């Protein structure tokens, strides 16, 4: 990555001296060259970024190769590719060779730069005369490299690989986010996809990637409008995304309203630019930059506040967003003539875009995890009894209903368990000792059951168990084991330990049973167990005449 970035840092193989002036009517290249030799042009360092002010007739630029001169095939490269046309005058003749990123005809045009193959007829020491033709677009600063053909090819290929990789990462993240948005039905991912897509589009236009290598002729002429629309839309998407992603409703509700307003303004700018009304388009270009500045400040402040107040995802946003902001600030400074030695900013903008896409995707993956965890927690809270962690009554009934509806029908036994004299324990040792006892009893009961048995707290000190596939004998056996287990349990209370007992009623499923009827019979049996002296089990027997025996085909524990 660093070696790829270095394509913007390495100095030209041939040192260049540069000078420029605005074009006057009637100028000729020879005249300009003469002025250069006379020293009347403004000097500049071609290896540094240099901005040529917008003027009605354009600007002349003279580049003089310095020794040691290279006597081999050379290419003049101009980074980043300016939006307008540059006329090159070989050997300072009057015949101009037009150089433009919109030129789809010549085989050599450069990627992420404009390239001019210096004719071999031009002596190595001869200055190159260029004219930046007047353009309506904002004149971005450029720098110049005069390179041997081989070095040019290598750097051009490096840039192409680097830029393609960055765009591939951004587009992959966009596709992933769109899939997540559809699958999770969460619009946050869609706003993120919109934001990264717009950013990639802006970079593709500014770096010239849309023209070479993509060769999208149809964008010729509409790129400035497209860039403006993508810029406004990217801020609108970023605002909508960050409001949800950083949970501003919770962490910074006031700023959420302001950022929502910013998104609406940016959407309005998109509409204004998209309209064919010239006045609206002019207003749009006036408003865009101030709103961009305001938006960047607002989003940064909101993310910092949300992060400080505990929003975990605001940190992801800041990590992805701050490098981009820094780059944007440096680019703005360069548009005003500062920091001209930082020639790598355009390449970095691509790398930082890919980096941001990855960081925010990680943040979105984390968001999906958090949402899933929260949903699981809610489900557990909705189904489990808070004190004993057994199924609550509703969840137990749901599972019992499912078991009763199972096809083929299987043998079921319902056990109704009620702690004996539990009121006394509460009265003597307090409610919290009672709570501890309930927890200990539930834990002990669960260890005696199979994972397929459904154990729930029916209410107060009553528990229920549904044994699937159990015969009468097996149900009796399990109930007796549970009784013994509770009796062996030592419940710690203030001055030592206390023993508890439990009474259990058993009811076997019969034809036509519902959960209510099954539980009701088990409850009746439990009362019989209480009446019988407690700490025992009692089986409810269905009193049916021999001819009216249940017709249900029961499957026992062995599947027979
Ligand atoms: N600590 C505690 N006690 C509870 C809870 N739910 C119900 N209880 C108590 O359980 C006791 C049940 O009392 P009773 O219905 O009279 O039954 P018992 O004292 O166990 O007597 P028998 O069932 O006849 O053996 C009451 O004192 C309730 O307050 C709970 O969640 N925690």
From TrEMBL:
GO terms for molecular function: diguanylate cyclase activity. GO terms for biological process: cell adhesion involved in single-species biofilm formation; negative regulation of bacterial-type flagellum-dependent cell motility. Its EC number is 2.7.7.65. Residues 410-542 form the GGDEF domain. Keywords: Membrane, Transmembrane, Transmembrane helix. The keyword Transport does not apply. It catalyses: 2 GTP = 3',3'-c-di-GMP + 2 diphosphate. The chain crosses the membrane at residues 159-182, 189-210, 222-242, 254-274, 286-307, 314-332, 344-365. The keyword Transmembrane applies. One of its GO terms (cellular component) is plasma membrane. Its cofactor is Mg(2+). This is diguanylate cyclase. It comes from Rhodanobacter fulvus Jip2.
């Amino acid at each position: 990555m660093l070696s790829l970035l270095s394509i913007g840092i390495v100095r030209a193989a041939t040192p260049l001296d540069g000078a420029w002036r605005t074009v006057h009517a009637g100028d000729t290249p020879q005249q300009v060259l003469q002025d250069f030799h006379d020293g009347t042009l403004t000097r500049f360092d071609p290896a540094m970024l240099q901005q040529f002010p917008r003027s009605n007739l354009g600007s002349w630029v003279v580049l003089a190769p310095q020794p040691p001169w290279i006597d081999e095939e050379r290419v003049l490269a101009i980074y980043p590719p300016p939006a307008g046309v540059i006329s090159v005058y070989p050997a300072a003749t009057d015949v101009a060779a037009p150089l433009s990123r919109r030129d789809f005809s010549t085989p050599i045009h450069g990627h992420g730069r404009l390239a001019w193959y210096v004719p071999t007829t031009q002596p190595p020491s001869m200055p190159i005369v260029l004219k930046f033709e007047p353009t309506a677009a904002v004149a971005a600063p450029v720098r110049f490299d005069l390179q041997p053909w081989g070095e040019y090819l290598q750097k051009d290929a490096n840039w192409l690989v680097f830029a393609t990789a960055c765009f591939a990462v951004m587009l992959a993240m966009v596709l992933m986010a769109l899939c997540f948005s559809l699958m999770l039905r969460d619009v946050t991912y869609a706003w993120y996809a919109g934001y990264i897509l717009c950013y990639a589009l802006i970079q593709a236009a500014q770096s010239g990637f849309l023209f070479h290598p993509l060769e999208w002729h149809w964008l010729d002429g509409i790129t400035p409008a497209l860039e403006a629309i993508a810029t406004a839309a990217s801020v609108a998407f970023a605002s909508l995304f960050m409001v949800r992603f950083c949970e501003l409703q919770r962490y910074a509700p006031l700023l959420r309203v302001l950022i929502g307003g910013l998104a609406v303004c940016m959407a309005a700018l998109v509409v204004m630019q998209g309209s064919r009304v010239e006045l609206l388009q002019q207003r749009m270009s006036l408003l865009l930059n101030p709103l961009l500045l305001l938006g960047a400040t607002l989003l940064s402040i909101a993310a910092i506040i949300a992060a400080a107040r505990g929003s975990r995802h605001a940190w992801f946003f800041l990590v992805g967003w701050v490098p981009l902001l820094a780059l944007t600030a440096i680019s703005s400074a360069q548009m005003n003539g500062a920091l001209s030695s930082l020639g790598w900013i355009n390449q970095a903008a691509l790398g930082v875009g890919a980096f941001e896409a990855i960081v925010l995707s990680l943040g979105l993956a984390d968001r999906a995890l958090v949402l899933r965890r929260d949903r699981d927690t809610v489900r557990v809270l909705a189904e489990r009894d808070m004190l004993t962690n057994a199924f609550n009554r509703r969840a137990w009934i749901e599972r019992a209903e499912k078991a009763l509806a199972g096809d083929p029908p299987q043998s079921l036994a319902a056990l109704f368990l009620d702690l004996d004299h539990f009121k006394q324990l509460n009265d003597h040792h307090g409610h919290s000792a009672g709570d501890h006892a309930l927890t200990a009893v539930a834990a002990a009961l669960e260890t005696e059951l199979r994972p397929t048995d459904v154990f729930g707290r029916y209410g107060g000190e009553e528990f229920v168990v549904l044994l699937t596939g159990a015969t009468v004998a097996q149900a009796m056996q399990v109930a007796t084991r549970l009784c013994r287990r509770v009796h062996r349990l030592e419940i710690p209370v203030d001055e030592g330990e206390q023993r508890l007992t439990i009474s259990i009623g058993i009811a076997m499923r019969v034809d036509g049973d519902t959960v209510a009827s099954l539980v009701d019979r088990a409850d009746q049996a439990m009362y019989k167990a209480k009446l019988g002296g407690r700490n025992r089990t009692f089986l409810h027997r269905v009193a049916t005449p021999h001819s009216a025996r249940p017709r249900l085909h029961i499957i026992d524990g062995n599947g027979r």
